[in-house]
Design brief:
Serine Threonine Protein Phosphatase 5, Tetratricopeptide repeat; globular
Length: 262
């Protein structure tokens, strides 16, 4: 509910503003320790990324309430946004976007960690689980760049707005595609903020969609084996439908004005 989300936002904002906040029966404040504020910014940013790789990866709609709170906090407390990006880029290098190359002397285990895989006791997580986590983080990022906290003063620009999404898309299409990962990330990104990019960039956006269909999807196909076609097929269908309809559908779960009246 919108009222519940406002409570969450106010509590986080009050904590970061140095006001006492009640939690688990006691009042806490960042002023209680010289590095209290820095610690809270760090842990809060880390928690938002964990929401992306956890909750959003399983429940796509949850990207929007989480993102709108983070967007508002980022606007009022830029340090949280900076640390959030650092955590996000480390956990999901594709959010840069960046495909790390394996350097000489880097162990396979360390390289897999650089690619975003979780490695425990030399055991690498399964590909499906890895893709799900990356998907959740990209969806959260794609939601953040298009949302503003509706109760802010809105004096300045969005702290990390749609221009960053446009840049991400352009950079992504300049990278050589990877099997599985590239098709999934493009589809996630376009499903969540394609509509907002379409409204902002108009004809330039449609030129990009046409480029994806005619040039980039064949390049993804060239590196994709027959057992990895699921994401690619969904991306092809999505792009084709959008180009035929000359419209990108609104993402599922987007927060409507009526949400804030609940």
């Amino acid at each position: 509910a919108g009222s519940k989300l406002r409570e969450v936002f106010d509590k986080i904002n009050n904590l970061l503003s140095g006001k006492p906040v009640q939690t688990e029966g006691q009042a806490v404040s960042v002023t209680q320790h010289p590095q209290g504020l820095e610690f809270v910014c760090y842990k809060l940013a880390e928690k938002f990324v964990k929401h992306g790789e956890g909750e959003v990866s399983f429940h796509h709609d949850s990207a929007f309430p989480i993102a709108v709170v983070l967007s508002g906090i980022w606007e009022l407390h830029p340090r949280v946004g900076d640390i959030f990006l650092a955590h996000l880029h480390k956990k999901c290098p594709y959010s840069v976007p960046f495909y790390p190359a394996r350097k000489e002397g880097t162990s396979m285990e360390e390289y897999q960690r650089m690619l975003g895989y979780e490695v425990h006791d030399s055991k690498v997580e399964e590909q499906d689980h890895f893709l799900k986590r990356m998907s959740g983080m990209i969806r959260l990022y794609a939601a953040i760049i298009q949302l503003r906290w509706p109760y802010g003063n809105r004096q300045g620009a969005h702290p990390h707005g749609l221009s960053y999404g446009w840049r991400w898309l352009a950079q992504m299409l300049n990278l050589e595609p990877l099997a599985d990962v590239t098709a999934m990330l493009l589809l996630d990104f376009l499903e969540v903020c394609g509509n907002a990019l379409m409204k902002q960039y108009g004809i330039q956006f449609w030129k990009t969609m046409f480029f994806i269909q005619k040039s980039y999807i064949p390049r993804i196909e060239a590196v994709t084996s027959s057992g990895q076609m699921g994401c690619l097929s969904r991306l092809k269908n999505f792009v084709q439908k959008c180009l035929q309809a000359e419209e990108i559908p609104l993402p599922k779960g987007i927060l409507t004005p009526s949400f804030w009246r609940t």
